[in-house]
Known about the structure:
The protein is α/β, with parallel strands linked by helices and 382 residues long.
Amino acid sequence: MRFRRAVRRIGLAGGVFGLAGGAFGLAAAxxxxxxxxxxxxxxxxxVPRSGAYVGVGEQVLRGVQAAARDANAKxxxxxxxxxxxxxxxxxxxxxxxxxxNHYAAQGVRLVVGHVCSNASLAxxxxxxxxxxxxxxxxxxxxxxxDRGLPTIFRVCGRDDDQAKxxxxxxxxxxxxxxxxxxxxxxxxxxNLAAATKENLNRIGINEAVATAFAAGDADDAALAxxxxxxxxxxxxxxxxxxxxxxLVRISAExxxxxxxxxxxxxATQEFGTIAGPASNGVLMTFYLDPRRKPEAAAVVxxxxxxxxxxxxxxxxxxxxxxALVAAGNFAHTTDAKRIAATLHAERFDLVLGSVGFDxxxxxxxxxxxxxxWNDGAFTYAK
Length: 382
């Protein structure tokens, strides 16, 4: 089937959606909008609700829940009420595959998820084999879409683009400083560190230290002492919010205060809370902040009316569900393969602006920018 090029909008509800603090204590199957008996299209939501990345998982889930409520208020997906089946993958590859198999067994063919790249990579094989559309709000691994699987999409950026920006910032701002590139042996951290190092070396700058370490308070203290002794002035680390928060705090307690440089993995309030005052001045690469886009103004206002700041990946979670609904409503279908074809063929006005998806499944939205942490929040860096 061929689709004509067009821009289609899906309406934003008048800003009414509940985000009470107990929302994340609900059972795995989350009923959104109408009662279950009336629902006839189920969308899976695979996020970490346990483990190191639970903070990012909560952001994505908040966004998805809000988008589903807003869509249901406007008629749902092709006139059918949306129900969310929320599953915890703990950012674990094996659990992610189990979640994907659960959806396959239940006949769920539309999924928002996963959050961590290793989980998305593992589960995407199952989704591709079953013709299931998977759209992630946070998995950045280039390999995820470089394989060209026709039903796999993302609304966030790619780690190779993030690494290029990190290397450029290091080269332009800290060329004469001693730089350390760190990873904690997890797949995402290791891949970002390697890509950043490769890009930095290609520019003609060699790091003073490149090392991997096992996360934990004792190892954090030993690492801080080692970096301090080596005279490191800039420390780049691609780890999660909890671990980087501990590392930054423990380093400061031991009198080591380099220029810390993190990634999209620390774009959550959890980092600022754990690092405390030592978080001030920490640099971070992250996607363009959609809270500042006029297209997201109504959604942002609705979140804030509920006392929620839609930080980090929240709006990207909203955009992921919104894209599925926009494609289904454009093509007048709930069929996964037709929705995938529509996502590839059309452009839609989402909270991210007017966007489409290329032949790999990558979103055609602006990529990464540089942020700085101050007073427990992050803003664009100057």
